[in-house]
Amino acid sequence: MPQQPPWQQPHWQVFDARELHSDSLKSDVIVIGSGAGGAVTANVLAQSGLKVTLIEEGSLKTSADFQMEELPAYRDLYQDSGSRMTEDGAIHIFQGKAVGGTTLVNWTSSFRTPKQTLDHWHQEWDFDANAQAMQIYFERMEKRLNISPWRVPPNANNDVLKRGCEVLSLKHDVIPRNVQACWNLGYCGMGCPTNAKQSMLVTEIPQALDKGATLVTNGQAVAFTHKNGLIQSLVVKPTHSSSTSSIHLSAQHYVVAGGAINSPALLLRSHFPDPYQRLGKRTFLHPVNASAALFNERIDAFYGAPQSIYSDAFQWQMGTTGPVGFKLEVPPIHPALAAQMLGVHGDTLQAYMKRLPHIHACIALLRDGFHEESLGGEVRLRDDLTPGLHYPVTEYLWEGFNRAYLAMAEIQFAAGASAVMPLHHDAGQYWNWSQAKEAIKQLPQRIHRARLLSAHVMGGCTASQDPRKGVVDSYGQHHQIRNCHVIDGSLFPTSVGANPQLSIYAFALRNAERLAHQLTS
Amino acid sequence: MNRRRFLLWSSASVTVISGGLYWSSPALQDPTGRYSTSTLAALNAITPLILPSLRNDPQATQAFVQVFIEGIKTLSASQQKAFDALFQLLIHPASKRFICGIWSDWEVASPETIERMLSRWRNSRWALLNQAYNGLVQLTAALYYGHPNQWALAHYSGPPAQVRAALGR
Questions:
Q1: Residue B70: how many CB atoms within 10 A of its CB?
Q2: What's the number of domains chain B is made of?
Q3: Rounded-to-integer distance, Cα A339 and Cα B143, Å
Q4: Alpha-carbon distance B37 to nearest alpha carbon in chain A (angstroms)
Q5: Per-residue pLDDT tens for A248-302?
Q6: What does DSSP say about strands A176-178 and A173-174: parallel, antiparallel, or unpaired?
Q7: Hey, how many other C-beta atoms are within 10 angstroms of the C-beta on B146?
Q8: Is A448 within 8 Å of B79 when comparing Cβ atoms?
Q9: Do residues A366 and A401 touch, judged by C-beta distance below 8 A?
Q10: Is the dihedral of CA A69, A71, A75, A81 positive or negative?
Q11: For B29-68, how does the pLDDT look when each residue is reduced to its tens digit (9 = 90+)?
């Protein structure tokens, strides 16, 4: 039997926001958001003896709640019930919303920040991200979260990528995963039912609670009140209350870690000074396009560790700042996601769904933000003050999507696919590589026709030592508001060029330790 | 499509989608938040064309349409607004004719006409119609095939029985 979640500890302080009233909690630091950035930060600060309150917008769900079913998982564990999109509806965004943030529902891929990325940040963005100095933080987080390359043979879906790369002599490797005693089930995206995934829910958050941190769930951070460069309080609205009343919580210091859409949105709602107009800008997505393929044999892409093989053969081949590079991976394919991504209806939909066990899919994650024309998107507030991400799909990206469709189709045929279907309204089923190659080159480069998605939101509060370039400094200290840090993926000046969770953990560890030192000395 | 029809088609749609005709549009929901009979009629007519296994089964179709409507209620406010705009498109007399191509009541619209509408929306060069198609079809398909009752249609048997037993699910 799997270890049961340790959420019954009597000495832990866990509240629903509606149980609180203004100033009912005394804290040294309030951390907003319990995902990769906020949980590590809360734990580091709590371990150093500081009184921490960790506030999460979502609910507390544990392995007992995870039913291995897509629909309840999307409804309960994802932002906007899994329907978050860029403002023009072109890119579907998957982001977590529960205690543990996206770490609760990600597919466990744990890469160190590529050296090329760290060098680029250091040289172009005055972001103190020295590759050598960062190694120790990667190593420490890998140890804390049991990150290591997956030793079990890949499932058939990942094996297609492996075989195709082998045939075409493309470099590929095994993905490191943050799991312990993993059952190899395939339900990481719906919350790990066995607590094998070393998400924040079962690692940093319980450790922080053990050290006296307080967790507040179902509390939305509305805005800060501030005066003369100092935050005075945080306005929190209970999300599960019919009452519209909000509470004010105050502390000596505040850490914003709501993720790369919600963090800039909170600062925008708070009217933080932004003299160089950086806030919310340069938000990146690793925009993803996908190619499905039919195999005669069963692939059963719904079972087994979802991601275990990747290829960076196309990631850096044209230079760090050249035409957009991309990482190749595969997604798990459960019925709801498949039905949605196929983008067809009627008999065609039914025919594809009948063949679901024979469908493989490959995804390309485009490395946005490195080229001078790749500016990413901008988080802006809607009339109701919720955040919207305006992310134009530019010609620069279309050129990359087109190369990625070609690369994925060639790999799929090389691995023995009987047919390949780029997920694009104008693409058909292609029966061989030469047919696919000619057809893909003709695909219209238009949003709402190419099915695009993202599971990695980064940037929007760019970190730079130069206040003209960034919202915060390298360590997350806000340039204008003295008692505020931002410590999450919104710091990154570009996308990472790899699934970002380990990058967020490592920078959070470094930056939180520095903050703990400042606050305790 | 001739020029006059195109102009009618685009002006009606832009107005409806931007909400400018709300004052003269049939109400989408009654005061209790239930969708109007005309919205339901449109969804009841369209759904079996998206999901062939619901063809000739009005009872199952109506039950699923309720699931679909409940599903919309879990989305963000902005997504719900987008669906409201889409529903206006389906039921407003002008857009129903010129954008959906449905000249009769939804209840008696022929499957061929509705299929033509879906295909035209999917293949249109107008991004707004592609978006309407994606919104309607993707949510419908996900909610339908995501439910355990329909897993067998995709030859998916769910989490292995021994895993469920070991986890007590």
A1: 10
A2: 1
A3: 9
A4: 24
A5: 999 999 999 999 999 999 999 999 999 999 999 999 999 999 999 999 999 999 9
A6: unpaired
A7: 24
A8: no
A9: yes
A10: positive
A11: 765 667 889 999 999 999 999 999 999 999 999 999 999 9
Q: Is B21 on the interface with A (CB under 8 A)?
A: no
A156-175+288-367+394-446 maps to which CATH number?
3.30.410
- Alpha helices for chain B (secondary structure H): 3-18, 37-50, 58-73, 77-91, 93-98, 111-123, 127-145, 161-167
Instruction: Kindly state the tokens that stand for A66.
Output: 């995870």
Site of tokens 């606050």: A519
Q: What is the residue type of B18? A: S
What is the value of ipTM here, to two decimals?
0.94
What is the sign, positive or negative, of the torsion defined by CA atoms of A369, A77, A217, A48?
negative
Q: Å from B17 to nearest chain A CA?
A: 14
With b meaning 16 or more CB within 10 Å and e meaning fewer, what string describes B44-54? bbbbbbbbeeb
Check whether B17 has a pLDDT greater than 90.
Answer: no
Pick A353's closest partner by Cβ from B115, B154, B164.
Answer: B154
Contact B146 A357 (CB under 8 A): no
Strand residue runs (E) in A35-136: 52-55, 91-93
Please give the structure tokens belonging to residue A198.
């070393």
| A404 and A314 Cβ atoms separated by less than 8 Å | yes
A212 to chain B, any CB pair closer than 8 A? The answer is no
Position A132 pLDDT exceeds 90: yes
Chain-chain contact of B143 with A84 (C-beta, under 8 angstroms): no
DSSP states of A405-439: HHHHHHHHHHTT-SEEEESBTT---BSSHHHHHHH
DSSP A18-59: GG--TT-S-EEEEEE--SHHHHHHHHHHHHTT--EEEE-SS-
According to the model, what pLDDT value does residue A22 have?
Answer: 85
Closest residue in A to B129 (Cα–Cα): A448
Range of the domain at B157: 3-167
C-alpha to C-alpha distance for B162 and B169, rounded to whole angstroms: 10
Phi, psi of A169 (to 5 degrees): 55, 45
pLDDT at B25: 56
Mean pLDDT of A474-502: 98
- Total Cβ atoms within 10 A of residue A235: 17
**What is the helix (H) or strand (E) element at residue B31, kind and residue range?**
none
Q: Which pair of tokens denotes residue A388?
A: 């919207």
Region of A401 please: left (phi>0), alpha (psi -120 to 50) or beta: alpha
Domain locations along chain A: 26-108+111-144+187-282+460-512+515-520, 156-175+288-367+394-446
**Cα(A105)–Cα(A107) distance, rounded to whole angstroms?**
7
CB half-sphere exposure, A498, CA atoms < 13 A = 23
Query: Residue A423: is it exposed, middle or buried by C-beta count within 10 angstroms (0-12/13-18/19+)?
Result: buried
CATH topology of domain A26-108+111-144+187-282+460-512+515-520: FAD/NAD(P)-binding domain (3.50.50)
| pLDDT score recorded for residue A241 | 73
3-state secondary structure of B110: coil
Token pair 């360590």 in the structure block, residue: A475
User: Phi and psi dihedrals of A48, rounded to 5?
Assistant: -90, 5
Set of chain B residues whose Cβ sits within 8 Å of the Cβ of A185: 159-160, 163
